[in-house]
């Protein structure tokens, strides 16, 4: 926990109970106000960003404990006003920090012993203060990464902006990859839950999108179909090779038979020639016996 965060967590009367054994009283804190999500795309976008981290654990190679939540208030201290990002991710939290759900109804920084690592705001109108009030508040809370996604171009600027804390100020993050949390953020065009749009997606260090469970299943089906088609193609090719080999074998056998036939015919001709010569010799001997010279 950095010094600035410790100061936020231990302000006023918080410090006494923070260092004590008993839990501070949080009954006066408003952790939810039943306000609905502002639009359908935002609701799907929030779910896409949180759900995939739980259903696709390939990104979490070191098995780090984490929380990924949407529309949950972040409380820096017992007397502080909460700020509610659309999505946040907090890594390396104490393994048992979320067990007491009756007490931990929001992200209490004194329970999780740190601030979230990245917060994401999805702009739906010009009243959210994403580039003013919220930006300054996240700076004050010393949250390392701040992302702003503006799918409806309400801010008339970039669709996606990512910032990293340097000192006490956010500066533009020039890359999609956030080394400290082992995740990247990038835009992706496609369909999610029947809606075609531009989405903000988590990705790996190569920029490859982390697939949802359905996408992973679909990819596995496509891969299985591709492997099946490849196997069928290889089987067909093997069958063709077998048929070609059979044809070559039959052609070779036919050529062999023809050669044997030619050999037999040649032998027969030779035998006939020998027989004719023997007959000529016998005739010559008979003529000589009669006193006739064969040459005459």
Q: Concise description?
A:
The chain has helices at 3-9, 14-19, 40-55, 109-112, 133-140, 213-289; strands at residues 66-70, 74-75, 87-91, 107-108, 118-122, 145-149, 160-166, 169-172, 177-178, 183-192, 195-203. The chain is of the alpha+beta class.
What would you note in describing this structure?
A hairpin with a 2-residue loop joins strand 10 and strand 11 (195-203). The chain is α+β, with helices and mostly antiparallel strands and 296 residues long. 40% of the residues lie in helices and 19% in strands. It has a six-stranded mixed sheet with strand order 1-3-5-6-7-8. The longest helix has 77 residues, at 213-289. It folds into two domains: 3-210, tt1808, chain A (Alpha-Beta Complex); 212-296. Mean pLDDT is 84; it is low at 10-22 and 27-31. The N and C termini lie far apart (133 Å). The protein has helices spanning 3-9, 14-19, 40-55, 109-112, 133-140, 213-289; strands at 66-70, 74-75, 87-91, 107-108, 118-122, 145-149, 160-166, 169-172, 177-178, 183-192, 195-203.
